[in-house]
Design goal:
The complex is a heterodimer of chains A (about 250) and B (about 325).
Chain A: H1 2-21, H2 23-52, H3 56-75, H4 78-85, H5 88-93, H6 99-127, H7 135-163, H8 167-183, H9 196-204, H10 206-220, H11 224-252
Chain B: E1 6-15, E2 18-28, E3 33-37, H1 44-51, E4 59-64, E5 67-68, H2 73-78, E6 80-83, H3 95-105, H4 110-123, H5 139-151, E7 157-161, H6 169-184, E8 188-193, H7 196-202, E9 205-210, E10 213-218, H8 220-227, E11 230-236, H9 240-254, E12 260-266, E13 269-274, H10 277-290, E14 295-301, H11 305-313
Parallel strand pairs in B: 3-8, 3-9, 6-7, 7-8
Antiparallel strand pairs in B: 1-2, 1-4, 4-5, 9-10, 11-13, 11-14, 12-13
Helix pairs in contact in B: 3-4, 3-5, 8-11
The chains are: A mainly alpha (about 250), B alpha/beta (about 325).
The structure holds adenosine-5'-diphosphate and magnesium ion.
C-alpha cells in the first residue's frame, strides 16, 4: 500500500509539472468556454433577460462549466496516448509498479486540472457580474458537480487512450463531441424549447443533469430535487464508465 | 560459470503471420556483456521486450535472475533495468526530476536516494545540467539521461536496446564507457545492436540473430576464428579499359587454387577468402605473375563480424531482414 501511494504520487507529480509547464494546453481547453462566456453572454444579454427573466450570463455559466469539465476530461487521456506512442508507457511498465497507479495518477491529475479550470471560469463569471445564489457553499458544490461529471468522462477518455492508435483520431473525437454535446443539452436554452430529437439526446446526455443542478445552485438556491436527480444520474454514469474503463484498460495493461 | 541471470529457452513469437522469433535459446551471465547482433527486423527488440515482461511470448520460457518472467512478472521486473530503443525522456521534466521520478517508482530508500541520483548523474556526465528541462538537452544527453534512469536501482540485469543508435561518435564512446563500467560493477548486460563495431568492442559473447533465428553464437574472436578464412584484397593495376578484365582473369586463375575458398570481385578489387595466410599470399602473387596480371596492391585482413554474418546468414548484413513482411 505504501508502495502504491509512492508510485501514484511520483506519477501524479509528473502530471502536475506538465500542467504547470504547459499552460497552452490549459488555455486551449479554456478557449471555447471563455469565448462563450464573454461574447455569447454579451450578445444575448438583452434578449434573454426578457424571455428567461434572468441574467443570461448566470444562465449560461452552468453550461460553460459543464463544457469545461467535459472538454478537459475528454482530453485527459491524450498524454497517455502520447506515452504509448513514444514508448514511455512501455518503459514505465517495465518497472515493477502497480498498473493501477498509472491510471489513478492520470485520473487524479485530470480532475485536479478540471477543478482549477472550473474555478477560473467561476471567478471570471463572478467578475462579469454573475451572482451565485448559494454563496461560497454553492461555489464548492458547483466544483463538486463538475467533478462528478468529469469522473465518468475521464474514464471514457483514458479508455480511448488505449483504443486509439494515434493522437490525431483522438483530437478529432474531442473536437466532434465537446461543443455539439454541449448544444445537445440544456446548456444554452431550456430543454423544453429544443426540437424533439435534440431533447431526446439531451435527456440521455449526462451534461444536462449537471447543468440543471448547477443552474439551480447559481440562479435559485439549494434545490434538493435538481441536486438529487443529478447525483443519482451522475453516480450511475460514473460507476458504469469506471467499470467499463477498468475492464478495457485492464486488458491492455496486463 | 555461475548460473545465468538471463535464460531464454525455445522462445517463439509471431505477430499475425510475421514470425518475429522462431524459437531462440540464449543465456547471459553476471559481469558479462551479451550481445544480440542482427539487422533491422531480425527480432532483437521483440526479444528484449519479452525479457522486460512487456510482450507475452507464444511459447518458450524466460527466466531473469531465476524468476520466470511469465509466472512471476513482478519479481522478474524488479531485477531488470530496461532502456528501450526509443528515447523516452519527458521533455517537460528536468534531468533531476527524471531521476527523482524513477527513484520513487523503484522505492529507493531515503538513505541511498541522494547518493544514487548523484552517482547516476556523474556516471552519464550530467552533473551541472540537472536543472535543465529535457527538451533543451541534446539528443546524446537525452539518451544518457535515459540510461541513467534505467540504472538508478542497480539492477542485476540490464537490458539495452540499441543504446548508441543515431548518436554521434563522441557520445557513442561515452555510452560504451558507461556500459563497460556497468559490466565492471557486475551486472549482466543484454545488449541489442545492429552495429558490428559496437558488438566487437563491447561484447564478451555474441549471438547473431537473423529473421527470428540465432545463426551463430560465441565470443567475437571465436566466431571470426571459426570461419577459418582470412581475406586477401588484391587491387589490379592496368589501363582503364583493361583492369576490370584483368581482375576477372585473376579471379578465374585463383579459382583453381586449393587455399582459395571464394573470391568476390568489386570492379578492380578482388576479395579473396583464403585458408592459411602464410601459403596463400605467395601463391596469389605467383598466380597473378604467371597469368601476366600486374598487381598494384595486396592487403591481408582477418575477417570481421560482417563476414561472419555473411557466412552464416547467407547474405550481407547491410541487406537487412525483410522477414517476409
Ligand atoms: N507490434 C508488432 N506488430 C507487428 N509486427 C511486429 C511488431 N513488433 C515487431 N514486429 C515485426 O517483428 C519483426 C521483428 O521486429 P523487431 O523485434 O522490432 O526487430 P529488431 O529490433 O531486430 O529490428 C519485424 O518484422 C517487425 O516488423
Ligand atoms: Mg529494434
Amino acid at each position: 500500500m505504501r508502495k502504491f501511494v509512492e508510485e501514484t504520487h511520483a506519477q501524479f507529480t509528473r502530471w502536475m509539472l506538465h500542467l504547470r509547464r504547459e499552460p497552452f494546453s490549459l488555455a486551449f481547453n479554456l478557449l471555447n468556454p471563455v469565448i462563450l462566456l464573454v461574447f455569447m453572454g454579451s450578445a444575448f444579454q438583452g434578449m434573454a433577460r426578457s424571455s428567461l427573466g434572468s441574467d443570461y450570463r448566470g444562465y449560461l455559466l452552468p453550461g460553460i462549466l459543464a463544457l469545461t469539465a467535459f472538454g478537459n476530461s475528454m482530453a485527459g487521456g491524450i498524454p497517455l496516448l502520447f506515452d504509448r506512442e513514444n514508448g514511455s508507457l512501455m518503459r514505465l511498465m517495465s518497472a515493477p509498479i502497480s498498473r493501477a497507479s498509472i491510471i489513478l495518477s492520470r485520473f487524479l491529475a485530470v480532475n485536479v486540472s478540471t477543478m482549477l479550470q472550473s474555478l477560473l471560469i467561476l471567478v471570471l463569471g463572478i467578475a462579469f457580474g454573475v451572482r451565485i445564489a448559494t454563496g461560497i457553499g454553492g461555489v464548492l458544490a458547483l466544483l463538486g458537480v463538475g467533478l462528478l461529471l468529469g469522473f465518468g468522462i475521464t474514464a471514457i477518455s483514458l479508455m480511448l487512450a488505449f483504443r486509439f492508435e494515434n493522437h490525431g483520431d483522438f483530437f478529432a473525437v474531442i473536437g466532434l463531441t465537446s461543443l455539439p454535446l454541449t448544444f445537445l443539452s440544456s446548456a444554452f436554452v431550456p430543454i423544453e424549447s429544443l426540437p424533439a430529437w435534440m431533447r431526446a439526446v439531451a435527456l440521455i446526455n449526462p451534461m444536462t443533469y449537471a447543468i440543471d443542478a448547477m443552474r439551480a445552485l447559481i440562479l435559485t438556491g439549494w434545490n434538493p430535487q435538481a441536486l438529487g436527480t443529478m447525483a443519482a444520474v451522475l453516480v450511475l454514469f460514473d460507476a458504469a464508465m469506471l467499470w467499463l474503463g477498468s475492464r478495457v484498460i485492464g486488458r491492455h495493461l496486463a | 560459470m555461475s548460473a545465468p541471470l538471463v535464460r531464454i529457452d525455445g522462445l517463439k513469437k509471431s505477430f499475425g503471420d510475421v514470425v518475429a522469433l522462431a524459437g531462440i535459446s540464449l543465456q547471459a551471465h553476471a559481469g558479462k556483456i551479451f550481445g544480440l547482433l542482427g539487422p533491422n527486423g531480425a527480432g532483437k527488440s521483440t526479444t528484449v521486450k519479452i525479457l522486460a515482461g512487456l510482450i507475452v511470448a507464444d511459447s518458450g520460457s524466460v527466466e531473469i535472475a531465476g524468476r520466470d518472467v511469465f509466472k512471476e512478472p513482478a519479481a522478474a521486473r524488479a531485477a531488470i533495468g530496461y532502456v528501450p530503443q526509443e528515447v523516452t525522456v519527458d521533455p517537460y521534466l528536468t534531468a533531476r526530476e527524471h531521476l527523482d521520478f524513477y527513484a520513487s517508482l523503484y522505492h529507493l530508500p531515503e538513505t541511498v536516494r541522494e547518493t544514487r541520483i548523484r552517482e547516476a548523474l556523474a556516471l552519464v556526465g550530467l552533473v551541472g545540467q540537472e536543472q535543465r528541462r529535457a527538451r533543451r538537452l541534446s539528443g546524446g544527453t537525452k539518451k544518457k539521461l535515459d540510461l541513467a534512469c534505467g540504472l538508478l536501482h542497480r539492477p542485476p540485469v540490464i537490458l539495452l536496446d540499441e543504446p548508441s543508435l543515431g548518436l554521434d561518435v563522441q557520445v557513442r564512446h561515452d555510452v560504451w564507457n558507461h556500459v563497460l563500467e556497468l559490466k565492471r560493477q557486475g551486472a549482466a548486460i543484454f545488449l541489442c545492436t545492429n552495429y558490428m563495431d559496437e558488438a566487437e568492442r563491447l561484447c564478451d559473447e555474441i549471438a547473431i540473430i537473423d529473421r527470428g533465428g540465432i545463426v551463430a553464437e560465441g565470443a567475437p574472436e571465436e566466431l571470426k576464428g571459426r570461419l577459418n578464412r582470412d581475406i586477401v584484397a588484391v587491387e589490379v593495376a592496368g589501363s582503364n579499359h583493361h583492369h576490370a578484365d584483368s581482375a576477372a582473369a585473376l579471379e578465374r586463375a585463383l579459382a583453381d587454387l586449393p587455399v582459395v575458398r571464394e573470391a568476390r570481385r568489386e570492379g578492380t578489387r578482388l576479395k579473396v577468402y583464403v585458408e592459411g595466410r602464410e601459403t596463400a599470399l605467395p601463391l596469389i602473387v605467383e598466380t597473378a605473375a604467371r597469368a601476366g596480371i600486374s598487381v598494384q596492391s595486396i592487403t591481408y585482413s582477418r575477417p570481421g563480424l560482417d563476414e561472419v554474418f555473411l557466412h552464416y546468414a547467407g547474405r550481407a548484413f547491410s541487406e537487412g531482414a525483410t522477414n517476409g513482411a
